Write the structure tokens for this entry.
Amino acid sequence: MAQLNDNIQYMKGIGEKKAAALRKLGIRTYRDLISFFPRAYEDRRTFYAIADAPAETPVCVKAMVAAPPNAVRARRGMTLVKLRAVDDSGVLDITYFNQAWLKNTLVPGETYIFYGRVGESGRRRTMTNPAFEREDAEGVVTGRILPVYRLTAGISQKVLLTSVRQALDACEAVPDILPDDVRRRYELAQARFSYENIHFPRDDAALDQARQRLVFEELYVLAGAMELLRGRRKDRPGLVLPESSMDGFWRTLPFSPTNAQRRAVDEALADMRSGQPMNRLLQGDVGSGKTLVAAALLWQMARAGYQSAFMAPTEILAEQHCKTLTEMLDPLGVRVVKLTGSMTAAQKRHVNEKLALGEADVAVGTHALLMENVTFRDLGLVVTDEQHRFGVEQRSALTGKGEHPHVLVMSATPIPRTLALIIYGDLDISVLDELPPGRTPVETYAVGEEMRERIWNFVRRLVREGRQVFIVCPMVEENEELPDTVKSAQEYARELQNEVFPDQRVLCVHGKMKAKEKDAAMAAFAAGDADILVATTVIEVGVDIPNAALMIVENADRFGLSQLHQLRGRVGRGKHKSYCVLFSDSKTDTARSRLKIMTQTNDGFLISQEDLRLRGPGDFFGSRQHGLPEMHVADLSADMRVLKQAQQEAQAVLASDPELRRPENEPLRDRIHELFELHEDTFN
Ligand code: ADP
Ligand code: MG
């Protein structure tokens, strides 16, 4: 009898070639096979007489081939096989494309079950490329709900179907990782039943039960993994920051910190004094003042004699942070240095020396900080800004430069809290849910082309008043596949300068520029050398240009709401009343209601929730920015309630058995280890 972890290479019907192809689908073991869940199902249970078959949904029709099939050569080398089948009620004309061999497979006078969508052609009923099975075949497919699998070259539905069947039969006892009481509490089906019925459902209800259980199971394993990690991290010794007051820092500020900022700082300090390394996510909407929180911690670290690293995703941001932090910390005796890729070798060497000797307290920089030759004398704290831009690997490369340094990651991408707990599973979370006082919300308008002239006049007026303007377009170069209304930044900038704003200074930044050019252009705009910046989304992340008072987004319907919110966050950062204009000519209701949300609220959390609701998992989950392993059945945005339950249960198990050493927890431990092995980079 096969074990779940056995390789499938020696399974009946699987040779070396097929095994290799299956590996492309991520299938190596029996367990992989039974966990390779169908992407859809075909209901082959409902039979119809030809005359009664409804159009649109695929159905089974039992019919006799009435005459020898006809092979016809059609255009472009295509072969059509046409045949006529009959039952008591009527005639069905069947066509197969490019399956010439069927001509000799379908035998006149024999009865087959055809499965497909019935169409109408004049008064005749038709079917195209139906699946079929002889009436007297052993009925593997007909009469059941049939799984449909994701395929790859060399692997057909049939191969998967029979392999999964074999695997299920061979692994009689699928160990249940869910404790009995948990299963009963949530009325979840047993493991064996669930694996059987997710592939070969007895009926709809069984499929439903199977799915519910497997979703729970998947999230339970994930949550358990995160909890285990969290526990392990807590076991590592972290340097202990001595008690000392924050007053000296707050007093030097030109403003008072918000309550949320104070709270976040206190939470982080408590971590850093606990004896265990801090692992904290600081989440806060654009403009909520995350930098200040980081600065407070950098100051505390420096006072205690430790160094810190502060990593930003772009040169321009690193530049800006360096400036801000120097202004704040230098008067307090904290030595801030900058390390970026564009510095000369000599400059870098100089900074490296200072860091190695402990002659600098804070290193602000880009990925350059990750270089091997960058060493710290005593790295105590690592801060990464806009953390979703960094892979987990990069984060750990930086923490590797110290002995379990404290870690603070900052992010403006608001995600619902339950989800954040899973995604940043091993991180504690602080939220800045309050904006500094005196901010007036950015006034936002969603408009169509008819407003163009008025908006241009508005731009001229603002520029006359000394303000600056962003114009963002979604594309860099002309792209023929997109409608020509999609503005290309370069073209567009030229056009605007020449034809619309001859008296204003127009500058362009786009993603295809070299980092250096991009930074130079951004710096020029920040310095006030231009009035209008035409840009692609490179300006999305935290650049601070307080004098900018208007953000115009072209083809706004092409952006996600959260992205629009980030863009809008580029204005309204100074004392000037600020505006955001979203141009869109899309007439669809969804596009309109999406943009309308932008005009109604400035709350990033609300917006991202709406974004999720309207677009489904959307960008965030689609692009897998979260770095989580791919889910097989669970949908991280839809199965929120289950996620919470699974998490509660996993936490309870780990609280009573932190390393999962009890025999009854062994199956869960195995599954978690498997997950770790598969995703070493995520679970470093
Ligand atoms: P983000 O969270 O988007 O990174 P920043 O840290 O860049 O926000 O802060 C945005 C602006 O708000 C900065 O100009 C900063 O000086 C200012 N700021 C931060 N905290 C306060 C405060 N408590 N009171 C007034 N202004 C503040
Ligand atoms: Mg920021």
Q: What stands out?
A: Residues 255, 257-258, 261, 284, 286-292, 412, 436, 542, 544, 573 surround adenosine-5'-diphosphate (ligand 1) (CB under 6 Å). The first helix runs from residue 16 to 24. The longest strand covers residues 111-121. Residues 476-480, 482-486, 617-626 have pLDDT under 50 and may be disordered.
